[in-house]
Amino acid sequence: MSPLVLLLSLLVLSVAGFLIGRQKALDLARREGGASRLHSLPAYYGALTALWCCLPAFFMFLIWLGFEQSIVTGLMVADLPEEARALPPARLNVLINDIRSLASGNIVSGEVTPLMRDAAAQYISLKGIGRMITSVIVLVAAVAGILAVYRGIKPRLRARNHVEKVIMGLLVVCSTIAIFTTVGIVLSILYEAVRFFQQIPVAEFLFGLEWSPQMAIREDQVGSSGAFGAVPVFAGTILISAIAMLVAAPIGLMSAVFLSEYADRRLRMVAKPLLEVLAGIPTVVYGFFAALVVAPLIRNSGVQLGIDVSSESALAAGLVMGVMIIPFVSSLSDDVINAVPQTLRDGAYSVGATRSETIRHVLIPAALPGIVGGLLLAVSRAIGETMIVVMAAGLSANLTANPLQAVTTVTVQIVTLLVGDQEFDSPKTLAAFALGLVLFVGTLFLNIIALTVVRKYRERYE
Amino acid sequence: MQDVVNKTTVEKRILAPRDSRKTIGSIHVSKPRMVCRDVNVYYGDKQAIRNVSIDIGCNEVLAMIGPSGCGKSTFLRCLNRMNDTIDICRVTGEILFDGKDIYDSSIDVVPLRAQIGMVFQKPNPFPKSIYENIAWAPKIHGIVESKSDADEIVESSLQKAGLWEEVKDRLDQPGTGLSGGQQQRLCIARAIAVSPEVILMDEPCSALDPIATAKIEDLIEELRTQYTIAIVTHSMQQASRVSQRTAFFHLGDLIEVGTTEDIFTKPSHQLTEDYITGRYG
Amino acid sequence: MNKSAGKSVARSSSGRGRTIDIVNKGLKSRYRKEKRFRFYGLLSIVASVVFLAFLLSSIVLKGYSAFLQTYIKLDVSFEAGMLDKQNPGRSDFQGIVKAAIRDYYPDVTGRQDKRDLFSLFSSGAAFQLREEVLNKLPEEGSSISLWVLADDDVDMLMKGHMKRDVPEGERRLNDKQLRWIERLEEEGRIALRFNTTFFTAGDSREPELAGIWGAVKGSFYTMLVTLVLSFPIGIAAAVYLEEFAPKNLATDFIEVNINNLAAVPSIVFGLLGLAVFLNFFGMPRSTPLVGGIVLMLMTLPTIIIASRAALKAVPPSIREAALGVGSSKLQVVTGHVLPLALPGMLTGTIIGMAQALGETAPLLMIGMVAFIVDVPGGFTDPAAVMPVQIYLWADSPERAFVERTSAAIMVLLAFLISMNAVAVVMRRRFERRW
Q1: What is the CATH number of the domain that holds B96?
Q2: Which of residues 267 through 296 in chain A touch C, CB cutoff 8 A?
Q3: How many domains are contained in chain B?
Q4: pTM of the model
Q5: Interface predicted TM-score (ipTM) of this complex, two decimals
Q6: Domain annotation covers residue B281
Q7: Chain A residues with CB inside 8 Å of B190's CB?
Q8: What is the domain partition of chain A in residue ranges?
Q9: How far, in Å, CA of B247 to CA of B259, rounded?
């Protein structure tokens, strides 16, 4: 049974469980003389039946879904002939991947050997058996759930309380997913990063000045060692983010000031949605635009002026990233400026201040914590932005402060190190997780400061 | 006050009926500082003030009283064009200050507000130091050029507002750290600092405790010698304590104007009497 | 006190005129500053809008031509033995097309010339012919004329992206090829027609055969997974946190987590997906299932925050009224609060889905960058999504992919704008003030 069909049958069973449970409750009520003899409304007895039908079964289904691949692959590998299992881990991995793709009917990287064909057939049959067993277990669990509740339905059964308790439990589980996500991020990145730091010392990674993660495949190639000093990568990230903030902070802030203090309703009605459109454009589009329009534009104007500009200059990526962040800065600043109480504006106007004096000397100082918080969030966003830099910034790690040269960023390196590579043992791929750890910790730090500052600010004026 | 009113009812004065909307009493004074004639205020389609005419004399305290929503605050905010900040608000009629209509297109609100200051219902000190709260307005207006000028204005304004002794040692601390009553006196000092001629006060004591209120009331009494003051208040006791003339508003109409004593002892309009005897409010 | 008051009186009586004069004197320069400040504000707005216009117009200008495609009319005659009678689908259509081309240009003989000539036609021409034949089996000796796809270089030439008057070495088509094309033009055998391939095909190395449909379907499956997971979970979390959760350290911690996750770089979610779903659970790479789960984790904070705001907007009086008639707390929420907050929650969900639809970076991490020709048919088929397709095409060197990238961007933006428009309309429609 395919997972989808299994889920559908589970759904059908649950509906059936609901109807059966309710029917029994209705029958009971008639025998006892009125629905008021029951503790809860009949529908609650139905709901209780349905819940006990689908929840345990669904849970088992999830467990299987999560581990299906690893269990089946493990069994399949155990059945492989001796000479295949004796292969070095990396080769074995490639083989397993090939067998899997063969089994699912995809293109295989190498030649198809009889061994692989047999293994693929074995894989498919194992998978089929696994699915069958799961289906039986899940369906039996579902039916058992229905029967158990059905037999327990009595007038005194506190069905509503039971149902509410179960629902409350589900709500709690849903709301903790955020925690599990964070924990998952931290653990997964940390685990791989630690493996990286076992091979490359932390200090070398954090303070080394040279970054060339390409490991040679053969021992005798030039530069076979690879260098993992991430300072040039960090510097490039900071350079591009700084350019972006130089664009986004003044323009975003002034846009917000203009829209909230000067613009009349009609202009606001037009300009705000336009800024929202700017915010809604996917980053890959900005990246395309940066690489194809802005970078050549900057390069050509550089040539006209006789300046040497790289075609992947930090300036192009930074400028476009800045534009991407403008609406973000502007909407956050708009929020905090609007949160400044009207009485402060009144106070300034009442002593004869002009609008700009009121804004510059009263509103902005009053809103400053909120604005700073918003800017920090924007910085965090610039640092973590990926597509624009992947498409428009360079790959080689130059340690430079010249915005006309090509630099690389943390996110670019993560993408280039991980895309297309499937082995998880070389420092090259693990380096991506070390960079990811730095990225996560850095942005976490910024976010927490920013969110605290903004929240404190809001509380002040509430 | 209750027995005063009882006495007047015994005299069996003839009162204007409740549905009469014409202003009763003398709107004129001998030395007017501001002259308002047929002022109407609209919020969008809704009329908030109807044909209000009244003079505000030099060195007097004019109290404006009336039930909530009667338009007294709206009227007060017309007097230095604070209503300009509300998009949909429209004012007709004329309000003369120094013989010129303040709603005339040639009038600039910035110097106008430097001459007609305002104190608000809730103390609203700027998020700056006490010193800067006072010195800021003179600075932007170019009234002070040097640090010593500024020091002098800060000191004299705080003196006049009766706050100097309490804050002279902590001028560099934020104005928002003061108590409510102190904050309100800081706001009054801020208004005084640009040497206005008229000070408008919009229920300046409504957010304060009785002791702070008493201090502000004393202050108003002192300030009267130099400034013209128009005060909106919810409290009839306060009006009777601080003002020389009182105007009673009701649902956008100016119902009755007179000396404070007359209004509170022998009102000429049924609505005024109803209000001051506490029949509604 | 008295003394100082007296001093001030003197000051203000002598200086009354003076103060206002000083104020008036300074006005001019203050208003200049005011104007300048206002101008800067306006300039900022204008700059953003101009940039937006620049971006959109350059994409439209680059991309609109991708909606048309060059076709060449070819007369194909089926001589005896050309078609496989038993199984017509397995005939040598490539050969038939080549024969037809040779018939039209009998004077082209050299090997290199022939290769150049054939390269004017897309390799897709044979597939077109196959379809045509399978549709209606032609009799032996008959002939049909068929509009077949031209190669992308010809397409670029016809659309004016390749200049004819530059030296031969600087263009991808040589002089002979130009002459052959000119002949086609004179006889009206080459024309731009609506590009249906773009909307019906999957990816391809040949630009003229590449289409967006595979990516659209990939996006559809991915979004379906995201929606099915994130909507119920997001609303359940919001309901719990807003309506039931006690105010304690644990819920504070959840709240901090949610707010922080909303600001975590999206690529970090990709790392999570790679390490947990692919490597630990061994789920299939490049599939909408994993992509959808990763995007769900990313969108969840947005939906939770929006849903909580919607719940907050429901006035407490309604809850009190419902509690007052003896409902349980859960009944109050499901019966009264949720229906009122639902429009706001839906709006938040749509906005979150629009974000997810445009997201690229985390999907790169879980292998959705693979080159996938087949249109995906389910949740566990390898698939590309629209933004990733854009990224892949943007990386391709062929000139013809530039216009296809721009066209794909237009399609993506059309989806996003319509989603956001729905959200705006819903917000306007259901915005209620109590």
Answers
A1: 3.40.50.300
A2: 271, 273-278, 280-289, 291-293
A3: 1
A4: 0.87
A5: 0.89
A6: no
A7: 347, 351
A8: 3-175, 227-460
A9: 9
